[in-house]
Amino acid sequence: MSDFREAVESISEAQCSEHPGFSADGACARCGTFVCAFCALSWAGRCFKCVHAAPELATRRARLVASLVDGAALLLPCLLLGVLRCLAIPDEAAMNAPVVYAPALLVLFVQASLIRGTGASLGKRLLRIRVVRRDGRPAEVWRIALLRNVLPMALCGYFGWLGLVDALFIVGEERRCLHDWVAGTRVVKAPRAQRSFAARLVTG
Questions:
Q1: pLDDT tens digits along 86-101
Q2: Is the whole-model pTM more than 0.85?
Q3: How far apart are CA 124 and CA 186, in angstroms?
Q4: Angle, nearest 10°, between helix axes 161-168 and 151-158?
């Protein structure tokens, strides 16, 4: 019992590691460092060091699934609209009509809005991963859209083998595809407390 009392007294006398002079209100949920009430409220129970620590890299499987989700979100609405036009107007080249690609423009607009807010497309949000700059700062929309997507697709249109080379770069230790190196970005996991069931199912 005396050991327990001493432990309680040591905690009550401890000070916040980030705010000297403030009594500890608890411990960091990640590393156990004492934190005050302000830190516990502002940083979800974590210390300053853990909040700003380098996030864990996203798994290759999570990145693959996110890419498949984004591809499906872009292509399936166009295919569905094309099929419906073929059924309604059999004699018209439905898939060549510009209106068929209207859903793709809407999807791209939604994706851009999501990326601007969180650095994550629809697929990445589902898997709770996001794109950041190499130093951990948020990645700009133009960097993600142009350097990570438009430029690689344009080059792959001329050099088909470049797509395979791009994908194979992910086997490296930093798990960065060629377009990540070009854009100066990497893909990381969101904090575990915020990750969805789908993310945990795919990434563990």
A1: 777 666 555 566 666 7
A2: no
A3: 13
A4: 130
